[in-house]
Every structure is written in structure tokens, then in C-alpha cells.
Write a structure and sequence with these properties.
Elements: E1 3-10, E2 18-19, E3 22-25, E4 31-35, H1 37-42, E5 49-57, E6 59-64, H2 81-91, H3 96-112, E7 115-122, H4 128-133, E8 137-144, H5 152-166, E9 170-175, H6 183-196, E10 200-204, H7 208-216, H8 221-228, H9 242-246, E11 256-260, H10 266-275, E12 279-283, H11 285-291, H12 298-303, E13 308-310, H13 323-334, H14 338-345, H15 347-353, E14 370-375, E15 392-398
Parallel strand pairs: 1-5, 6-7, 7-8, 8-9, 10-11, 11-12, 12-13
Antiparallel strand pairs: 1-2, 1-3, 3-4, 5-14, 14-15
Helix pairs in contact: 2-8, 5-6, 13-14
Pfam families: Amidohydro_1
GO molecular function, one term: hydrolase activity, acting on carbon-nitrogen (but not peptide) bonds
Protein name: Amidohydrolase
């Protein structure tokens, strides 16, 4: 049986917005029809449920750390990344039941917040039980880290074992960050990833100290390595920022997500675009404000027409796991048009994860999830051909 819903506007993402458009969906959320108001009237469709607001596809959260959900409210703000990492290490250990309960609650909240798919960072198997029964699609990025090159073989072997344990769930092995992965481990990750055509993800330039470390081997990362008991005498400064120092070690054959990019410069972007043809750039603005109290230089990203996605990071670095809240923050700080933000939050994320056949846009034959987004009153034109930017209120309701 097909039911029909309508709203002030429908934003398919893959097609122009429809004023008072109508969507026909079955009991499983499969889209059977998308109609203009005139088409619905001409077909004599009745019993249409009308919503005040905008109907959009479900959101794609391309960067999350579900297994850190139990750290909500436990990590100080504005510590800078090295201080944040140290706090997470000190407080990460907890009873298994506490960790699972927190993950289940976070997963439920993400579903309610209209998130339909997540790219999730994992260091352990503990999140598998939550992901197996979730209404959300998960791709798990199994994080490999180790700055000592002599341990690379053992680290990649453990990562492969963990990846096998996550089967049949979708997963891939990825480097944590350039400052925590040796050249040899980068090499092993690349070999494994190319063999399986895996998705790649890496934390990139989340703190100015990352660039300082690669350029001069100075800064607060030295204190972090001391805290971790790591001898890094083998490391030599490259004289270049982080991104041009490590990006050539990643395979250009794999779709790669650079996450955070808080301190990525125009020259870094120019280098990356020239170096790698399959890059996506994930923004996690609320986490950036939580940790560094800084946002990326977004004008450079827009000029370069980068493929941008959105992420929430973890509840250790965010007050909620909500893509609409990330959109609100970007709109508040940068005045990004709603239609552009929506593409970042839906289609681009689905394209990166390779799930655009199901998610990312409202289209016949898809089950993308449907979210009702309330808008600020009088923030959109009555003429769909001349609509103005929609101001996001943050109030949402999952419809399908």
C-alpha cells in the first residue's frame, strides 16, 4: 500500500525543489512516486498527509566514533588536540556494559536525528553488536595506528583480524592520523586497501601542532609522545605541512576522506587536488569548536569546489550526534546556502560511502529515509523559481 506525504517544499537533492510536492512511499519507506502538486491533483490522489516545512533525504554522517559515546561530558573543552587525546586515553577505559549502553543510546539518537548511514571509526569489536541490529547503515573504519616502524607488520595483522571479525558488516582498514602512523604502516595499509579497493579515511590537520610537528619536529606533540612513552628519534621533520608530507603515501586508486581539515591552507588544498583525484573532505565543525575552538578556512574549500561531506565526530568532542546541528553551525558562521549544505549532508556522503543507489537523494526506487526539517518562518520565497536561502531551525522529525 502506498501512502502520500507532502510539505511546503520537497528537496530531492538530485533534482530541483518542489513547492507542495508529493511523495508516494510504501510501508518499507521505498519511494514509489515523486509528483508536483499539479500532477498529484490531476491523478486524483487523496488522503495526502501535509507537513509544514521541508522534506529532505536522510542524512549521512561520514565521521563518527561510536565507541567513545560513554565519554560524553567527561572531556574538557578547548584543550587543543594533544590535550584532548591525552584526556581520552586517561578516561577511555570503562565497563563493557556502560560502553554498550552508551553506544545504543547514541545510535538511537542518530536514527531519531534523521541519520541513515554512518562512517564509524573503531579500534575494537565492541560496536559490532550495536551495528548489527541498528536501523542505520554502518561502514566501519578500522583504525590502525603505530608510529614505531618496527611494529607495522604486527599492527596490520591485528587490523586484518579485526576486519575479519566485523564481517559481514562493511569495513576497511585506515590510518588514524599522519602523526600516529609510521611510513611502513602507511605502506602496509595501502597494500591491504588496494587489494580490496577499500574506502580510506584519515584525520587531517585538526590542530596547528600537526603542521608544526612535520615542519620542524617541535610543538605539543612531543609532550604527547613523552606521555605515551614513545621514542621518536627515528622521525625527521619534512620541512612541509602535514598534508603534503603524507598524502603521497595514500593510494590514488581509493576514495579517500580527509577528516576535520581545520588548519588546511589554500596551498595544502592545491597540492591535494593535484595529487589525488578521489578526495572527499569531511567537516565536523562542532567538534572543531569543542577541541580547538576554531573552524576550517571554508572559503578556500568553496573556491576549489571540493567534494565536502559532514560528520559529527564523537560524544567525547560533541554535545550531540546530529548532522542538522553541524549544518546549523556552518550556516551561522559562513552563511552557506541551504541547498549546498544539504548536498554535503546527503548526496556527497552517500557517494563517498558508495551507497548512493539507496541513500543520498529522494528518488523513485530508493529507501533514503525522509526527514521533515522545520524552517525559520518567512525564510523562503513563495515562488520556487526564486526561492531564497532557507534558515535552519534545527527542529526535525523522521518521517520514514
Amino acid at each position: 500500500m502506498v501512502s502520500y506525504i507532502s510539505a511546503s517544499y520537497i528537496y530531492p537533492v538530485s533534482a530541483p525543489p518542489l513547492k507542495d510536492g508529493v511523495i508516494g512511499i510504501d510501508a518499507n519507506g521505498l519511494i514509489k512516486e515523486i509528483l508536483t502538486a499539479e500532477e498529484a491533483e490531476s491523478k486524483g490522489i487523496t488522503g495526502i498527509k501535509y507537513y509544514q516545512g521541508v522534506l529532505v533525504p536522510g542524512f549521512i554522517n561520514t565521521h563518527c566514533h561510536l565507541e567513545l559515546s560513554h565519554l560524553k561530558g567527561k572531556i574538557d573543552r578547548h584543550t587543543g588536540l594533544p590535550g584532548f587525546v591525552e584526556q581520552v586515553i586517561r578516561q577511555r577505559q570503562a565497563e563493557e556494559a556502560e560502553v554498550i549502553d552508551a553506544m545504543e543510546e547514541a545510535d538511537r539518537k542518530m536514527y531519531e536525528n534523521g541519520i541513515v548511514a554512518v562512517g564509524d571509526i573503531s579500534n575494537k569489536l565492541i560496536s559490532r553488536s550495536v551495528k548489527e541490529i541498528s536501523g542505520i547503515y554502518y561502514h566501519t573504519f578500522i583504525e590502525a595506528m603505530g608510529f614505531n616502524p618496527s611494529k607495522a607488520i604486527d599492527i596490520i595483522a591485528a587490523a586484518i583480524e579485526l576486519k575479519n571479525a566485523f564481517k559481514p558488516l562493511s569495513s576497511s582498514i585506515v590510518p588514524h592520523a599522519p602523526y600516529s602512523v609510521s611510513d611502513e604502516l602507511f605502506h602496509q595499509i595501502r597494500l591491504e586497501g588496494e587489494k580490496n579497493s577499500d574506502l580510506m579515511s584519515i584525520h587531517n590537520q585538526e590542530t596547528p601542532d600537526e603542521n608544526v610537528f612535520f615542519e620542524h619536529k617541535t610543538g605539543s606533540f612531543l609532550k604527547l609522545y613523552e606521555f605515551l612513552g614513545l621514542n621518536i628519534d627515528f622521525f625527521e621533520a619534512t620541512g612541509k605541512p602535514s598534508l603534503p608530507s603524507y598524502l603521497p603515501r595514500l593510494s590514488t586508486k581509493q576514495k579517500t576522506l580527509l577528516v576535520h581539515n581545520t588548519f588546511t591552507s589554500q596551498s595544502d588544498i592545491d597540492f591535494a587536488v593535484d595529487q589525488h583525484p578521489s578526495l572527499y573532505w569531511c567537516l565536523c565543525p562542532n567538534a572543531n569548536l569543542y577541541i580547538e575552538n576554531k573552524l576550517p578556512q571554508l572559503d578556500s574549500f568553496l573556491r576549489a569546489k571540493l567534494k565536502i561531506t559532514l560528520g559529527t565526530d564523537s560524544l567525547a568532542s560533541n554535545d550531540q550526534l546530529s548532522i542538522i546541528e553541524e549544518m546549523k553551525t556552518l550556516q551561522d558562521h559562513f552563511k552557506i546556502p541551504f541547498e549546498e549544505l544539504l548536498k554535503w549532508a546527503t548526496w556527497n556522503g552517500a557517494a563517498f560511502l558508495g551507497i548512493e543507489d539507496r541513500f543520498g537523494s529522494l528518488a523513485v526506487g530508493k529507501t533514503p529515509g525522509i526527514v521533515l526539517l522545520e524552517i525559520v518562518e518567512n525564510s523562503v520565497s513563495n515562488d520556487v523559481d526564486n526561492y531564497v536561502d532557507i534558515l535552519i531551525s534545527g527542529k526535525i522529525k523522521r518521517i520514514a
